Amino acid sequence: MPFSVREGINVFLAGFIPTENLRFREFELVFNISDAVDEFALLSKTAHYNYDAMCKTFEGFKLRIEPGTFSNSEIIVMLGQNGTGKTTFIKMLAGKLAPDEGSKVPELSVSYKPQVITATFQGTVRGLFHKKIRESMNSPQFQSDVMKPLRIEEIIDNEVKQLSGGELQRVAIAMTLGKPADIYLIDEPSAYLDSEQRIITARVLKRFILNNKKTAFIVEHDFIMATYLADKVVVYDGTPSVDCVARSPEGLLSGMNRFLSMLNITFRRDPSNFRPRINKLESVKDREQKQTGRYFTLDE
Question: How do residues 243-255 score in pLDDT, each as one tens digit?
Answer without folding.
Answer: 999 999 999 889 9
